[in-house]
Amino acid sequence: MDTIPQATVSALHLLTSLDPALLSVVGRSLAVSTSACLIAFGLGALAGAWLGVSRFAGRGTVLAVLNTLLALPSVVVGLLVYLLLSRSGPLGFLGWLYSFQAMVLAQTILVVPIVAALTRQAIEDADRMHGEQLTSLGATTFMRGLLLAWDERYALLTVLITAFGRAISEVGAVMIVGGNIDGFTRVMTTAIALETSKGDLPLAIALGIVLMVVVLALNALVAVLRSWRERIDGAATQVARVGVG
Amino acid sequence: MNTVAAALQGASADARRESAAGHSVFTLDQVGVRYGSAWALQSVSLTIGAGERVALVGPNGSGKTTLLRVLNGLIEPSAGTVQRLAASQQMLLFQRPYMLRTSAQNNVALGLWLRGARWRGACRLANDALARVGLAPLAQRNARTLSVGQQQRLALARAWVLTPDALLLDEPTASLDPDARREVEALLGKFASGQTQTLVFSSHTIGLVSRLASRVICLQDGRVRADLPVREFLQGTAFGESRPSLGELR
Q1: Mutate which of A55, A134, A136 to disrupt the B interface (most B C-beta within 10 Å)?
Q2: Is B40 helix (H, G, I), strand (E, B) or coil?
Q3: Which of A26, A58, B140, B246 is the most exposed place for a label (fewest CB within 10 A)?
Q4: Across residues A15-44, what is the average pLDDT?
C-alpha cells in the first residue's frame, strides 16, 4: 500500500493528467445527480409550493412525515428501490436494476423530501407575509403557490443546490441499486469506497478531492446567491426606507 | 383582450356601478371575528352604500384591519353574517403593498391576467394605469426597487386597472413622507370622485379623514363606538364626554 504522501502525489497526477477513468466516473456522477435533482426539483418544488399555501385536514401529519423523510437513510432508499426494481418487484419489468436509471430513481427519492420541505418552508413564509395580497388580486390557491414559488426563485435555486449536494455525496443507495459496475454504474462515492477497500488510494484520493471541490463549489454558489439576493433585497428595502424618487 | 378583461375595463363595469348606485355594497349583521380566544371584532352591524367614502378610525388593535379583511372576504366571520360585493368587484390595498420581483408594468398587469385577460392586453392596460399615477417612466423598473410612495402609487394603479366598485385601503398613507402622502391622497380623491365608487379606508391621520371621507366609523376593542358623518366626527359632539381624543387616533 502506498504511503499517504505518495498516494496524494499520484492522485494529483491523475487529476492533472485528466485520467480517462477518473473523468468517466466524475462525469457519470454529475450526470446521475443532475438528472435526479432536476426530476426531484420538478416534483418536490410543486409539492412544497402546494403544501406551503394549502390548508387541509391532516396537513400537520403530512408535514411531520415530510420532515421525517428529511433524515431518510440512503441505504434504506437503496433497499426500497432495489425491492421495487428487482425481478420479483412491482417495477421489475422495467429491467432498470444495476443501471443509470436505477441510480437516478434512488437519488430522486432521496432528495424529493429535501426539496419539498425546504420549498414548503420558503413558500409558507412568503404566503404568511403576502398571500392575502395575491388572493385580493384574484389568485386562486394554486396560482398563489406558483406565483410565490416564482417570486422566491432565488431561494428555490438555493434549495436545488442543497439537494444536489445531498445527491452527489450519498453512497448507500447508488451502491445497492447501481451495483458499482466499472464503466457502467460506478460513481465517485462508490468508487472511493471500493478503491479504499482495495487499497488503491491514489484514485480514491483523487475522487475524494473532486468530490470535495464539487461540494465546496456548491456551498460557495449558495453563499454567492444568498449574498446577491440580500444585496438586491437590501438595496430595495433601503430605497424604500429612504423614499428616493 | 378577452371578454373578462373587457368586462373589467369597459362599459359593463360602468353599468355594474350604475345598477349598484344607491344600493348597499357591504352589509354586516352582528359580525364577530375571533383569533384564538380573543375577539378582534364583536357584534359589528353596519351597512356601506355604493359611492360612500368611509374612514375607519380607532387605536391600534381596535379591529380596523380585521374589518377590512372581512369586507374583502379574506376571512370569514366567526359570528354573524356578511353580504359583500363579489371578490372581482372589490380590491384591498395593504399598508405595505407586496410587489413581485419583476417590473412595475408586470405587477400591474398581473391582476388583469389573474382575472382572465391576455398578457399582452393586460400589459397595454397596465401602461395606461401607470401613466395615470405618474409612474409611466418607471414601467420597466423592478418594482421592489421603487420607494414606498411609488410602490403605494403602483398598488393604486394595480387596483385601478381592475376598475373595482369598491376600494378598501389599510392605512394607505401611514409610512409615506409628506410629498408621497399628498400624491397618494390626490389619487384616492380622483378614484372616489365618481358617484358610485366606494372607498373604505383605515387611517390614523385626521387630515386624510377630513379631506377624503364622508362618513367615519370609530372602532374600539373590536366594537363600533361611533358611526357618523365626517363633520360631526370632527366636531366631536357625537361622543359627549366619552369621545376619543383625536391624538389617540393619530
Answers
A1: A136
A2: strand
A3: A58
A4: 95
Higher pLDDT, A231 or A38: A38
Separation between Cα atoms, residue A149 and residue A160, nearest integer Å: 13
Integer-rounded Cα radius of gyration of chain B: 18
B contacts of A135 (beta carbons < 8 Å): 74
Helix runs in chain B, H state only:
3-9, 11-20, 64-72, 104-114, 119-132, 148-160, 178-191, 206-212, 230-235, 246-249
pLDDT at B73 over 70: yes
d(CA B148, CA A242): 8
Q: Could you report how far apart the first and last alpha carbons of chain A are, in Å?
A: 71
| Each residue's pLDDT tens digit, A169-224 | 999 999 999 999 999 999 999 999 999 999 889 999 999 999 999 989 988 988 88
A201 neighbors A11 (Cβ within 8 angstroms): yes
Q: Is residue A86 within 8 Å of A80, Cβ to Cβ? A: no
Nearest to A240 among B72, B138, B148 (CB): B148
How would you label B217-230 residue by residue, b for 16+ Cβ within 10 Å and e otherwise?
A: bbbbebbbbbbbeb
Predicted local confidence at residue B8, as pLDDT? 42
CA dihedral of residues A163, A167, A173, A177 (deg, nearest 10): 110
Task: Indicate whether A241 pLDDT > 50.
Answer: no
Cβ–Cβ below 8 Å for B145 and A236: yes
- CB contact (8 A) between residue A239 and residue B72: no
A238: CB partners within 8 A, 6+ apart: none
Q: pTM of this prediction?
A: 0.80
How many Cβ atoms sit within 10 Å of the Cβ of residue B167? 23
Distance from CA of B65 to the nearest CA of A (A): 12
As a whole number, mean pLDDT of residues B21-32 equals 86
Verify whether the Cβ–Cβ distance A136 to B92 is below 8 Å.
Answer: yes
> Predicted confidence band at A237 (pLDDT cuts at 50, 70, 90)?
low
Q: Which of A122-126, A157-161, A222-226, B168-172 has the lowest mean pLDDT?
A: A222-226
- Give chain A's domains with CATH numbers: 21-240 (1.10.3720.10)
Between the CA of residue A242 and those of A43, A97, A133, A230, B172, what are the distances in Å?
41, 61, 24, 18, 18
CB B158 within 8 A of CB A137: yes
* pLDDT classification of B195: cutoffs 50, 70, 90: low
Chain B contact for A222, CB < 8 A?
Answer: no
Q: Residue B90: which of B164, B4, B196, B21 has the closest Cα?
A: B164
